[in-house]
Amino acid sequence: MMDRLNPEQRAAVTLPSGHALVLAGAGSGKTSVLTSRMAWLIQTGQVSPHGLAAVTFTNKAAREMLTRLTSLLPIDTRGMWVGTFHGLCNRLLRMHYRDAGLVQTFQILDTADQLASIKRLVKANNIDDEKFPPKEIQKFINACKEDGQRPGDLDAHDPHRRRLIELYQLYQDQCEREGVVDFGELLLRAYELLSRNAPIREHYQRRFKHILVDEFQDTNVLQYRWLRLLAGEQASLFAVGDDDQSIYAFRGANVGNMADFERDYARGNVIRLEQNYRSCGHILESANALIENNSGRLGKNLWTDSGEGELVRISELASDALEAQWIVDEVRALIAEGKPRREIAILYRSNAQSRVIEHRLFSQGLPYKVYGGHRFFERQEIKHVLAYLRLMDNADDDTAFLRVVNFPTRGIGARSVEQLADLARERGTSLLRAIPYLQGRAATSLMRFATLIQDMASQAQILSLPELIEHVVHHSTLLAHYQADREGAERLENLQELVNAATVFVGEEGFAELPAGRVPEAVPGESEQAMQNPEQAAASVLAPMSPLGSFLTHASLEAGDNQAQAGQDAIQLMTIHAAKGLEFDAVFITGLEEGLFPHENSLFDPGGIEEERRLMYVAITRARQRLYITLAQSRMLHGQTRYAMRSRFLEELPEQHIKWLSARYTSSPMQSEASSGAFRRGQSWESKDKSYSAQPYGGRSHTSVLEVNGQTFRVGQGVHHNRFGEGTIINLTGQGEDAQALIQFREVGSKTLALAIAKLDTV
Ligand code: ATP
Ligand code: MG
């Protein structure tokens, strides 16, 4: 185990108990060190597997960590606390649901469910959704929770904020009534449970001797507080991270946690690793040079002894369709050279980019797998089935009720549902439970729905989980609905996939023989622990879950990667965010255009640009041997054709480490499309390399042009506006009357102007 480590890594792995921080760049072995330290602590008898907790960033990473651990040491990892913050908090709350003030069957709202729930609240309380857009309320609530604040902790400086705080409280009451928690609530509840309940806190503080955290730079304030509480005075906290890879500030991550941790805990114990074992020289130097452009870094210098390797290849295509085509051609060449498909990753900034690439891969018959992003469990048809299952498991779940009460349509109108909602409010109960009290015409059809749910729920006592899901798909008439739909084939496949996922799930969890609704006797590991700690057993009730309940939790917390195909050798597609911590032999980074990457929301905020640059740093450092970067001169996004400038990040890559593969397009987009077609045909990348040898990047020669009312506009062009003054065109979209320009004005910031109307002079 130690042989493979370099001296600094070994020092980190074998540090004596106490807090420590490993601060090191990408690919320097942080995750390897963390896993080796777990194995070393166990092997040297300093701690039992039970006395360790490890926090990772994704469920996938947690699974990999356990796999690596068992390959180093033959131990039983069941009952070990290795998972994401959300996963571990969920576990804590399931164990101690009573003390946490939750119902045993509490279910988890994902982001979309949360928004639906807020919309419902806004409507029920006659709130003006122009003044209080549900998304704004959602952002407000989540930010408060990430800061550990309840409505009562907040000050209302002005009427608008006072109303938001009231809405937060109303939303909280609604969740309580319906027995659901959102993602932020999982963390906050778990934090409050530990901070308020001394016996439980002391129990866990006694249990965990070592707590290890990967990707520490992306923890938020509440997560850090939770860790400190869990660690108490005795446990050793071991955190690894890289400030240059902090990419979740937009979701409340606080890179300042690293400095705080160093000050409060690690003090002298900071280890730096500088050798990169992942990427070849040109790739690593490109990443180093790029990130140099950020300010306020903690500062690291990465080197490699694995040689220069190949130059970074950059290719500019006329359109997103051609970009996808070019990538797929390269992918085929790589596969022909013998590269396994799973070692090829295609990364993008925004989920919307994947469709074109997927389409191309699909039409070429290349197997691929999309991670994260549009998660399997978020697909419409899957959410419908899950809503039936949730309603069977928890009759108070009004969000689930509203999703399926009239889907597939069964003649239950909006009026009937409103009537039911009024009645439920009067009686202080949920929608499903209020049905029997309903009078009049609406009653019959709603009663039929209640019976349907009841019948399904009774099947849960007989059928296994996969059988139950099949039953629900059939009896809810979802099956018939999608069979009748001309475009339902893919949805039917996904429904089958859900049954497969349930089969894998019950197998892995040891639930195969159990009816879906039956609660098993005891959870191994946890209950035995409670026996040894009568104090804790008294303080809380253990809550093992039924296969159905656990599966619903799994569906909310997992990315829902297509498990049934996990073993298949497929090309890997994902957003850059989802690629964090991973590595591949060959990586494509796509869409290097201003407004896309860096993302348009970040363009006018220096902090935003730096976060985008860290994202690009993460993307580059995923590649081992070969890195491709692509960009398109025009792109269909959200139903509009957009023309954009080359990303500023391309300029930040040193010339000696890159090579431009494509001919430079100096003509109009139409012509360049044709020329790129010629360039593409029948050439392997080898011959392309020769014919299009290193093109120096000649600054911004702009080809993205729009003509409106005889006036020609170009991306990058200077303009003058009567009111706003001087500015530069950043982005052009649409055509004719719909043509718009995103302009960065020197004095007033960015504005989007309709070109047919705005009086712009070109300068
Ligand atoms: P990231 O910042 O991207 O999360 P990391 O710092 O966690 O990266 P690892 O994923 O642990 O880095 O390691 C990167 C690669 O280097 C892995 O393939 C790992 O097996 C390999 N590696 C780490 N240390 C060594 C070593 N001492 N000798 C050889 N290979 C190593
Ligand atoms: Mg890592």
UniProtKB/TrEMBL annotation:
Ranges where the UvrD-like helicase ATP-binding domain occurs? 3-280
Query: Which Gene3D superfamilies does its entry note?
Result: 1.10.10.160, P-loop containing nucleotide triphosphate hydrolases (3.40.50.300), PCRA, domain 4 (1.10.486.10)
Q: Which Enzyme Commission number(s) are on file for it?
A: 5.6.2.4
Binding of ATP: at which residues? Answer: 24-31
> Is Ligase there in the keyword field?
no
Q: Where is the UvrD-like helicase C-terminal domain?
A: 281-581
Keyword tags: ATP-binding, DNA-binding, Helicase, Hydrolase, Isomerase, Nucleotide-binding
Protein's UniProt keywords contain Flavoprotein: no
Q: Which reaction does it catalyse?
A: ATP + H2O = ADP + phosphate + H(+); Couples ATP hydrolysis with the unwinding of duplex DNA by translocating in the 3'-5' direction
User: Which region ranges are annotated with the description Disordered?
Assistant: 672-699
Q: Which family does it belong to?
A: Belongs to the helicase family. UvrD subfamily.
Protein name in UniProt: DNA 3'-5' helicase
Could you read off the lineage of the organism from its UniProt record?
A: Bacteria, Pseudomonadati, Pseudomonadota, Betaproteobacteria, Burkholderiales
